[in-house]
Each structure stands twice: as C-alpha cells, then as structure tokens.
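WARN no homologs supplied; continuing
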Amino acid sequence: MSAGAIITDEAMLQAIVRDMQHVAVLGIKDDRDPDAPAHAIPAMLEDSGIDVVGVNPMVKSALGRATLGSLAELPTGIDVLDVFRRSDAIPGIADELLALPPMQRPAVVWLQTGIQHDESAARLAAAGYRVVQDRCLGVYARRVRR
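OK structure emitted
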C-alpha cells in the first residue's frame, strides 16, 4: 500500500476521482428513497461507468445487485470506499478497515459531506490509507468525470 495521507489538495482530490474505477459505498440505500444522497450518488457513479459495490447490512440489494453485509466482505481492487455514515460511527469503521488484510483494503476512504473524524482519519493515514473528509464524491465526479 502506498503512503497514507489526509488529502485536502484539490488536484489530488480530482486525480482520485478521475482515476477511480471501483467504488464501494458504505451505507448505500436502495431505491425506496431515490433522492437520498446514499442512493443518488452511487447511481450517478454507476451511470458514469464506475463499478459500484454497496455495503449495508440493512439493505439486501441496491442498484440492481446484492449488497455486502460488512466491510470484511469487500473484494480486492476497491479504489475508493465512499462512506455515508455519521461522524460518530467513523472510529468503529476505522477499526474495521484497519483489521482488513492489506490486499483487501481500499486505496482511499472518502467521508461524505458533513462527515469528519480527525483522530480516525489520522489513524487510517498512519496505516497507509488516503483519507478524504467532509467532501461530496458526487460533486467531484460531476466536475471531473463528464
């Protein structure tokens, strides 16, 4: 795994979004609430040609395919883990990510708008993850992946 960091540089954020091909969405929602960001953003990503894997134990399927029940089920090759969970859930999520074998770890942990936990972000960065906090992946995807 490459060196970890907390990413705030706009050029680096855009490069992450431009290069991503496989995105896992933690907290994905199904089509019962199509306007919810946790449904609309993954759908938009998929429509732009990105492979999207949903992770949510409360949702059996989203975007027409089965979802994963936990981060421990992540396949290898995930470029970005897009997180739709409250900030107070981030320490537990960080623990789950740190427990993953290195080959199963996503390269980037992207915390959606309004989600930030500096201590957990620092722990993840120290373990080699690149971390983005309080940014909307959908906004960046619309800008960069036209």
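The longest strand covers residues 22-26.
OK
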